Amino acid sequence: MSAPAAVLAVGGPLGGVLPADLTVGTVLLLLLAALAAGWVDAVVGGGGLVQLPALLLVPGLSPVQALATNKLAGIAGTTTSAVTFLRHAPPGQRPPVPVAVPMVVGALGGAAVGALLASSLPGEALTPLVLVALLVVLVVVVARPRLGETSHQRLHGGRQVAVAAALGLAIGGYDGLLGPGTGTFLVFALVGVVGLAFLRATATAKLVNVATNLGALLVFVPQGHVVWGLGLLMAVANVAGGYLGARTAVAKGSRFVRVVFLVVVGALVLRLGSEVVGDLLA
User: Fold this and answer.
1) With helix as H, strand as E and coil as C, how does the chain read?
2) pTM score > 0.85 for this model?
3) What are 64-97's pLDDT values in tens digits?
4) So where are the chain's domains?
């Protein structure tokens, strides 16, 4: 067994500590990826597009360990951005409680179930489905330029609670199983289905994203998949990016968030599309 594999194979509640052959240059690149991911996640979601692929390049790190460590770093950034939104967003742009609470509860359970499946179901099987979903999201947002400029909540009462819980459960399950694009799907669901403006949807998505990360970690930590040293280092950078991103989104408003949203969705489509094409040609 190689040195990194030996370190990463440490089981129990603490999992691995730090891969043995990480160079200073690799660590710096991972920290830069975590900083960028925190900013993107805070503004519009989709930080996993940056952070998870960077972790998958670490020698000796299995996909499930990369996913688990990504959750540890991610929960620090999403918590920071959620608190920043709550403190600095105007009252009318803060998360609506009747939507946020059931969505958080559903997301927590969904992410735990998804994390349980993560070690047995290959993520590649979901990639084409995620790609199609993202293409639909991109087309809808481009075709409706006024979508998400202002809040027009379409659901009320018990129906609102049920739909929010179902969305949280479904997207939380995806986040626990695979991850990249979760924040993007949350924002689109809150804009396109619930009827929130982009800024308010982003603020709400941060609370839900905290729950998805927590739900996954409740499974990954006891299984020993989290590489703690690496995850905590990246968490510090993710916190900084999350704070800066949340302040940027609050200052710039829904139109800015919409533009970043389209850029991130486009980048996700290109990356996942290249994976699908590569698998077909292999």
Assistant:
1) CCHHHHHHCCCCCCCCCCCCCCCHHHHHHHHHHHHHHHHHHHHCCCCHHHHHHHHHCCCCCCHHHHHHHHHHHHHHHHHHHHHHHHHHCCHHHCCCHHHHHHHHHHHHHHHHHHHHHHCCCCHHHCHHHHHHHHHHHHHHHHHCCCCCCCCCCCCCHHHHHHHHHHHHHHHHHHHHHCCCCHHHHHHHHHHHHHCCCHHHHHHHHHHHHHHHHHHHHHHHHHHCCCCHHHHHHHHHHHHHHHHHHHHHHHHHCHHHHHHHHHHHHHHHHHHHHHHHHHHHHC
2) no
3) 888 899 999 999 999 999 999 888 888 878 888 9
4) 18-281
